[in-house]
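Q: I have 215 residues here and want to know how they pack in 3D. Can you give me a structure?
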Amino acid sequence: MTVSLPNESTEYRLARNALLAAEIDLRTKIEEVAALRRALPSGGQIPEDYAFRDLENEVKPLSSLFGAHNSLIVYSLMYGPDATAPCPMCSAFLDALNSQVDHLSKMVSVAVVAQNTPEKLLALKQAMGWTSLPIYSALGTGYQSDYLAESADGSQLPILNVFQRNATDIHHFWSSEMFFEPSEWHPRHVDAAWPLWNLLDFTPDGRGEFIPPLR
């Protein structure tokens, strides 16, 4: 199908068609990468059933977060026990995720964990209006350090992990390891799940140096 829009020049249409071909190539590559991801063999079995705590300070093992599903997505929010505020970038990502949890929960389970107390996480959830996000405290567990979300010096890192449950145990499936690969565009390890950046990339000025502020 040949597309044209009102009052566009021949120069524009030729450039746009060349871009369209590149976009199609990119989409094809994205599909190929997704297929490779789905074909990953089983990752390592979790070393323990991490005893997270919910916002009422009740113990919720990682195994309980799967609910009726066999896939669990866990995002680690950068909000350590000594932090005065959460990471603004993480918070912007969670703003978007909050609006999609109801849809995602038809297919998979979703959780957010942070190395902070249930009380502070409850206050944060209420302040941010994250009505749909299931948030848990990872304090007292080795989850953050085991799954790339805490460095040796205790710094918190914004890693997304996926776990898979079978009939007998739980295995790691995937994590956003691109965070640790240096590049000119670092870090964009969860951009594929973040509409903010994808929409800005459609515009003439792109994403620029914009950093979303903490609301």
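Q: Anything worth noting?
A: The longest strand covers residues 71-76. Residues 50 and 67 are 15 Å apart (CA to CA).
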